[in-house]
Write a structure and sequence with these properties.
This protein is mostly helical. It has one domain: Rossmann fold. The chain is built from nine helices and two strands; from the N terminus they run αβαααβααααα. Strands 1-2 form a two-stranded parallel sheet. The chain is globular and about 50 Å long. The two termini are 32 Å apart.
Length: 172
């Protein structure tokens, strides 16, 4: 539905990705923060809704639940956008967190050039990185240390190899 609407009303758009393994870990932390802040009702808009007891589980068990229930939707979302972008490369720019992290200004120039935005309208500089702006740590490969070997194996087999190569050329 998104590509259909965008194609009709927006001439070009940018789809920004993060490595799905990083998305998983970030989501586990985000859900934990919502529980700590008493905001678990915000999770009613995600499917499946995490179990009420999730926040009391060990970190390892919470990750396992999200690998089973959240991670497949992340892979599906990314893969569908890659497929759509392959059909309309002149209309869709795929960007990745790694390139943003490497050089904020180069990333911004790339997006602006694609969208035909004059460089003169932008003042360069990275935004403030706070929890309010959804920056937790900014570590690109934190998942490598945070997940155990079994979890790393589970997510590696869940990511199609072509998609894994987009992020780091390997599945682990």
């Amino acid at each position: 539905m998104n590509p259909q609407l965008l194609k009709a009303f927006v001439p070009k758009w940018v789809v920004h990705f993060r490595d799905p393994r990083s998305v998983l870990l970030s989501w586990v932390h985000h859900v934990g923060r919502l529980a700590t802040e008493g905001r678990v009702k915000e999770l009613f808009r995600v499917l499946p809704v995490p179990p009420e007891a999730l926040h009391a589980w060990s970190f390892e068990r919470r990750i396992d639940w999200h690998i089973d229930n959240f991670f497949p939707s992340v892979i599906q979302w990314i893969q569908k956008w890659v497929d759509v972008a392959d059909l309309m490369p002149e209309r869709i720019l795929l960007t990745e967190y790694a390139e943003l992290r490497k050089d904020d200004d180069a990333y911004t120039r790339k997006v602006m050039e694609f969208l035909d935005i004059p460089e003169s309208v932008h003042t360069y500089g990275a935004p403030e990185k706070t929890m309010g702006s959804h920056y937790r740590t900014g570590l690109q490969d934190e998942w490598r240390d945070a997940l155990n070997v079994r979890q790393l194996e589970r997510i590696s087999v869940a990511i199609p190899s072509a998609l894994a190569k987009r992020f780091d050329g390997s599945q682990t």
